[in-house]
Design brief:
This protein is α/β, with parallel strands linked by helices and 350 residues long. The chain has 14 helices and eleven strands.
């Protein structure tokens, strides 16, 4: 009798547990099934051959994998103009973009600190400054002025000058019409007697063909992939505006509206992208140089003495003056900021 009662009790317990589990599943399953899918669009700049292009193209797959398909990203290079790639996120026209800092240097000079002559000369120095303070500082600026959250960063391949005729002395710059992409390089070119011209990458080849410009400062990888060397066979490394950083951004409201677990998954994926962006940087540069050499182009690098002549105060001062003047207008201590960079690089203060 006792055994029978215990068996009955055990049976009732199992049925109750099954009922409770069934009820729980009834509520949980629809919740899981109905978890809203998040669709995002990311604007990018046309930049074939560069790590920027490879990394931004990988965003959809990385994020889809990290979120188990819950977040979908569509990448487009035709939705907004390059100069609007950052403001489109701030204004809510796009939820995401991959913006170049240098395009904003006229408005916010800290975004163009690497454009100052002789200050940051290569990717190693860029990373030192970035790790020391600049990444954190610029993340605050993105949030405050553009309403954006930084998900990942990287850098374009080093800037080189592609020109129709050799430009291998300071005197060679005189009267040359050169495409530039930042105000500091423009100021330095003016001081050298050149004629700086802003121009979108897609306009460069027609401008070279028609003789509108004599040369172009651009990423080694982008210039190589777009084959500017076919018309501008002289590919020179003067160290001018050597490094151009970029950042993958997301609208702050869009980011904060995501569930916390999804944000963590997305950020993890973007941390991996950033590691790959810097880790593969030199390989992209070397591939671009090797391809140009294979096509009969021999890249040239200015000597330390030639770079020193180019960055002599009589030519570099104009770039620093324009940057420091804008810093004063924006409301921060420009000389102190430059010295903070120099300190991070182990260089003496000015």
């Amino acid at each position: 009798m006792l055994i029978s009662t215990q068996a009955a009790e055990s049976g009732r317990s199992r049925r109750l547990l099954a009922a409770l589990l069934g009820a729980a599943f009834t509520f949980v399953a629809p919740a899981l099934a109905q978890a809203p899918k998040i669709d995002l669009t990311m604007g990018i700049i046309v930049s074939p051959g560069d790590a920027y292009s490879a990394m931004t193209a990988s965003v959809p797959e990385r994020i889809a994998k990290a979120t188990n398909g819950r977040v979908s990203v569509t990448v487009s290079d035709s939705l907004v103009a390059p100069a609007q790639i950052a403001s489109s996120v701030r204004d809510g026209r796009l939820p995401m973009s991959a913006a170049l800092h240098t395009y904003l240097a006229a408005d916010e000079p800290r975004m163009g600190i690497f454009n100052l002559p002789g200050l940051i000369n290569n990717i190693e120095e860029y990373q030192k400054v970035r790790d020391a303070f600049w990444a954190k500082d610029v993340a605050s600026i993105w949030a405050e002025k553009w309403g954006a959250v930084v998900l990942a960063e990287g850098a374009w391949c080093p800037t080189r000058l592609f020109s129709k005729t050799p430009i291998r002395t300071v005197e060679d710059f005189k009267n040359k019409r050169l495409r530039v992409h930042n105000p500091q390089t423009a100021a330095q070119m003016n001081a050298l007697g050149a004629k700086p011209t802003p121009m979108a990458p897609t306009e460069i080849m027609p401008a070279l063909e028609r003789g509108v410009i004599d040369g172009v400062f651009i990423s080694t990888c982008v210039g190589g992939a777009m084959e500017f060397w076919r018309l501008a066979k002289n590919v020179q490394d003067w160290g001018v505006g050597a490094i151009t950083g970029w950042a993958i951004l997301i609208n702050k409201a869009e980011w904060e509206g995501m569930p916390a677990d999804v944000r963590a998954q997305v950020k993890g994926a973007m941390d991996g992208l950033q590691k790959d962006a810097f880790g593969t940087y030199n390989a992209f540069v070397q591939a671009a140089l090797d391809n140009m050499k294979k096509n009969g182009v021999e890249p040239w690098t200015a000597s330390e003495a030639e770079r020193a002549a180019l960055n002599d105060p009589k030519f570099a001062k104009a770039a620093y003056d324009s940057w420091l003047g804008r810093a004063k207008e924006v409301g921060f201590d420009g000389p102190a900021y430059v010295n903070q960079v120099r300190q991070a690089l182990g260089k003496p203060a000015l």
